[in-house]
Amino acid sequence: MSTLRERKKARTRADLQRHALRLFRDQGYAGTTVEEIAAAAEVSRATFFRYFPSKEDVVRYDDVDAVRDAVFAAQPAGTPLLVALRTALRTTFDQLGPERRELEELRMEIARTVPELRDRSQFTVAHAAEQVARSTGRDPSDFDVQLCAGVILGARLAAQSLSDRNPGLSFLEAMDAALARLETGVPLAGEPIVHRA
Amino acid sequence: MSTLRERKKARTRADLQRHALRLFRDQGYAGTTVEEIAAAAEVSRATFFRYFPSKEDVVRYDDVDAVRDAVFAAQPAGTPLLVALRTALRTTFDQLGPERRELEELRMEIARTVPELRDRSQFTVAHAAEQVARSTGRDPSDFDVQLCAGVILGARLAAQSLSDRNPGLSFLEAMDAALARLETGVPLAGEPIVHRA
DNA sequence: ATCAATAATGAGATCTAGTATCAAATACTA
DNA sequence: TAGTATTTGATACTAGATCTCATTATTGAT
């Protein structure tokens, strides 16, 4: 499956994303038009939209998923779910080459920073539920599976928020701490409420 | 504070949202232009954008928050956090009049169904964290507060997913069950992972 | 090597969301 | 009732996104 056509398409796609991320970093997301991205990659505006349905998708597009899944699958059977997630999270980045890792970090940085993109997580409950179901041998529509998937997504959101608020805390560190904390239950679940004056 | 000007503005805003939701229901979100909404409410397109910063905001806008906050605050101090949330959730809708309740259900239906809106929850970690912090007398930037807020958001997402998959299960019922389940910890947190053939 | 079928591209035209400006209309105030 | 402040409509403009059509490039087979 490595025909010339395929290779050119893959290259064009990568070029578009690389130039887009660079331009976004240098002049901001809103300050960069699709026209400019296309010009930098030496294609027409129409071609950009053939590769990426929208301007947002050029940031959302990510081929690291496969690596993360492989790392997760490489863990020994019997590992507790949250532990396996933590380990996969920490290991994944080390599996990438330096330039790919750098580009991926820039991509995540932009996806986390730009308001238009920040709230739109590419990870849905359905997506996470499928992974949880596969890992535990259960059905994706199972109540516990869905809720577990939702909680993992919630932990992601919390980790992003925590690393945004705390400059010294990276997202990966925050996520790691969040997963560890969840093993002992939901924080403040039984906390009595108070009424302030 | 009930001058004619204020009343007219409130009426125009309500008209725009009512007509927008009706049109979205009948012809779909993407299939309805702001032009059409403005025409239905008998104002100009420019006026629409004065009341709602974007087309999405006409679905996002919600005045039920105040009711929910009041219901939550009405609960006795000392109530466990998740229990207070469940109770507030179940009670809030009963406090609304029938037509307001129907419109609110349509609004939630559209917000949950339309792809462009589905992922953009109006509830952020920061928003939820503020409420958790207020209820428990803690700091919003506290680790446990942020994580608890994230988990509650995750439970929302899971409840939406569950009610989407299961036609007989309403969102409110799913959310209620999710909050109840979380009191005993995170489902499947310690579940051993398996590898399928 | 050539040729026909297929896929990718570029060049527009068009639609719509969103922003800015200015003059007319409407509500407030004294 | 006159003057002031606010709201509105009309208009023009930018940019994202879709569509069509002619042109170019790639492929597979002769």
Task: Write a structural description.
Two copies of one chain form a homodimer. Chain A has 197 residues and is an all-alpha fold. Helices cover 66% and strands 0% of the residues of chain A. The first copy, chain A, has eleven helices and no strands. Chain A has helices spanning 4-27, 34-40, 45-51, 57-60, 65-73, 81-92, 98-113, 115-118, 125-136, 143-165, 171-182. In chain A, helix 1 (4-27) packs across helix 7 and helix 5 packs across helix 6. The longest helix of chain A is centred in the first third of the chain and has 24 residues, at 4-27. The first copy, chain A, starts with a helix and ends in a 15-residue tail after the last helix. The relative contact order of chain A is 0.09. The mean pLDDT of chain A is 92. The structure holds a DNA duplex (30 and 30 nucleotides).
Work out the number of β strands of chain A: 0
Q: Output the number of helix runs of chain A.
A: 11
Give the % helix of chain A.
55-70%
State which percent range the strand residues of chain A make up: under 5%
Low-confidence stretches of chain A: none
Oligomeric assembly: homodimer
Mean pLDDT of chain A: 92
Structural class of chain A: mainly alpha
> What's the main sheet of chain A like?
none
Radius of gyration of chain A: 20 Å
N to C succession of SSEs of chain A:
HHHHHHHHHHH
N-to-C terminal Cα separation of chain A, in Å?
Answer: 69 Å
- Approximate shape of chain A: globular
